[in-house]
Every structure is written in structure tokens, then in C-alpha cells.
TrEMBL record:
Name under which the protein is recorded: Xre-like DNA-binding protein
Segments crossing the lipid bilayer: 114-134
UniProt feature, compositional bias: Low complexity: 146-180
Species annotation: Lacticaseibacillus paracasei (strain ATCC 334 / BCRC 17002 / CCUG 31169 / CIP 107868 / KCTC 3260 / NRRL B-441)
Molecular function per GO: DNA binding
Keywords: DNA-binding, Membrane, Transmembrane, Transmembrane helix
Length: 309
């Protein structure tokens, strides 16, 4: 092993570096590092690299590279002038710059941007053509014979005026007759729809529901009575008792309901002996067997509003 190689190897071991570690740090190939330690300078690519690699090796392991090169100058081959010039960093930089400045390399560098720009331009052109195709609709043909058009338009105008006059007369008479018919039918339908309709459901235990349709907004009256026995009865509107009392058989009590009432209750202590009438119309509460019963009356709001109109 060469003396300079031995010195570098000892410094590397002292630093705790392996050949692989040194290769990672200096980026010098492992075989060149081994050749330097063994003094086999002929294995390196050239005399210039011998001095350069030795200096880099020495600096990495903590030695003074320049001093080491001076100390072992007689053992290290001197680079030839031509070789130094060819391997010098400046020459390499110039060559690299010249290569990068060539038109081909410039074109290669900007080729991705040029391709993207071309794609964008093509896409814009395609979209523009599609918009033109959709916007251009079928053109209307204009008649060339303007005189015939003018004459026919005059004739059609005169005919249209006559027909419009007659049609207006017929429409007026038809409208008046139809309005009269509609008034008659509406009056008939109003009379039919204004009739109070009472629907009584079967009793569910101590409760029973009554649905009212076409209940007037005002003037509603309940007539309560008892048949065959005495019945205690109360009338509840909006949670408040408006009347309560005991009716003997054959007696009755009339209760006026508040205006705009939509729901109310009649409570009876003897439902089987109780009779109820609403605006003179009987309410059949016989669909049940419970003696004590609460009958809830609910007006259909839609029908009630329609009857008042």
C-alpha cells in the first residue's frame, strides 16, 4: 500500500467512515477510492482526477488536501496541460453552455409549453365552430313577388275585418248567454252546497266524533233535550263551559254558539237519553253504548268558508 494511501486510509478509519460512507459523501466511485488507498493511480480516469480525488478524499477525512498534495508531490502524477485544459471546470462549463444555447436544445426545453399552447388553441377553435353551428338556424325564405303579397294582404285584411266584426257579435251574444247560464248554475250549486251536512262516527268508549260540513259562520244554535230519563248535559266551547244543567224527560235547552266557532263539545251524563239538534237538524248519537259520553263536533274549515262565500 502506498504511503499517501495508507495515510488517507488511517484518517478515514479514525473518522469512523467506511468506503461506502466515503462514496456517499464524496460522490467518488468506490473503486477509485480503493485505488487511491492502494496507490494504484493508473486505475483512475486520468492524472487530473488523481490530484482532484486525493484532495477531496483528504478534505473529507479531516486532512489538509493541499498540504498532502505538496508533501507527496513526487508520488502523485502531474496532469498534462492538454488534459488539464480538457478536464477543467471552466472548459466543461463553456461546453455545457454552448450545448444548452443550441437551437435544438432550446426547442426541446420549450417543447412541453408549445404542445400545451397548441392543444388550448385547437380546443378554442373547436368550441367556436360548435357555437357557430348551433347558433345558425334555418333561414326563412322571403317571397320575391312583393306585389302579389300586397294584393293578397289587402284582400285578407278586408275579409278579416268582416269576419272579426261578425265574430265579435256572435261572441258577445254567446258570452251573455253563457254568463246567465253560469249565474243560474252557480246559484243552484250554492244552494245545494250550503246545506249543513252532519256525519256521526261510532262511539269509541266514552268519546264520539261528529264532522260538520257547510257549517255557517254565525247564527248556529244547539237544541239539547232528554227523553225517557233525566240527563245532565254541558256545552264546552274553546275549553270554556258556555252552559250546563240537568234536563228532565221532555224538556229542552237552546244554546247559541259563538260566531266563527269550528269545534265544540257536548258532555252528557246519560247519553242514551240525550237528544241533540244543530240548527234544527238532528244529530244521531245512538251509535254507542256508553252512558257518560263526550261528543266532539268539528267543522270542516274548507267547506265552512265556501258556504259563507
Amino acid at each position: 500500500m502506498d504511503e499517501i494511501g495508507q495515510k488517507l486510509r488511517d484518517a478515514r478509519i479514525q473518522k469512523g467512515y467506511t468506503i461506502d460512507d466515503l462514496q456517499q459523501i464524496t460522490k467518488i466511485q468506490k473503486r477509485y477510492l480503493i485505488a487511491i488507498e492502494e496507490g494504484n493511480f493508473d486505475a483512475l480516469p486520468g492524472d487530473f482526477y488523481v490530484r482532484a480525488f486525493i484532495k477531496q478524499y483528504a478534505d473529507t477525512v479531516g486532512l489538509d488536501g493541499d498540504a498532502l498534495l505538496t508533501q507527496f508531490q513526487q508520488d502523485i502524477p502531474e496532469p498534462q496541460p492538454q488534459e488539464y485544459a480538457a478536464q477543467s471546470v471552466e472548459n466543461k462549463t463553456r461546453a455545457t453552455r454552448a450545448e444548452e444555447a443550441s437551437p435544438v436544445n432550446r426547442l426541446r426545453r420549450y417543447l412541453p409549453q408549445i404542445a400545451i399552447a397548441a392543444v388550448v388553441v385547437v380546443a378554442v377553435i373547436v368550441i367556436y365552430v360548435i357555437m357557430l353551428v348551433y347558433q345558425s338556424g334555418p333561414k326563412q325564405t322571403i317571397p320575391t313577388d312583393s306585389e302579389s303579397v300586397a294584393v293578397s294582404s289587402k284582400r285578407s285584411t278586408s275579409k278579416t275585418s268582416k269576419s272579426s266584426t261578425s265574430s265579435k257579435t256572435s261572441k258577445t251574444s254567446a258570452a251573455s248567454s253563457s254568463s246567465k247560464t253560469a249565474e243560474k248554475s252557480s246559484k243552484k250549486s250554492t244552494k245545494k252546497s250550503s246545506k249543513l251536512d252532519i256525519s256521526v262516527a261510532d262511539a269509541n268508549g266514552a268519546t264520539q266524533a261528529v264532522t260538520l260540513q257547510n257549517l255557517p259562520k254565525t247564527g248556529n244554535k244547539l237544541t239539547l233535550g232528554a227523553t225517557g230519563a233525566t240527563a245532565w248535559i254541558s256545552v264546552i266551547v274553546n275549553g270554556s263551559t258556555t252552559w250546563q244543567g240537568s234536563l228532565t224527560s221532555g224538556n229542552s235547552q237552546e244554546v247559541t254558539l259563538p260566531d266563527n266557532v269550528t269545534t265544540f263539545q257536548v258532555r252528557s251524563g246519560n247519553a242514551t237519553a240525550t237528544t241533540i239538534k244543530l240548527n234544527g237538524q238532528s244529530v244521531d248519537i245512538s251509535k254507542g253504548t256508553s252512558i257518560v259520553r263526550t261528543i266532539t263536533f268539528t267543522a270542516d274549515a274548507t267547506e265552512s268558508e265556501g258556504s259563507q262565500e
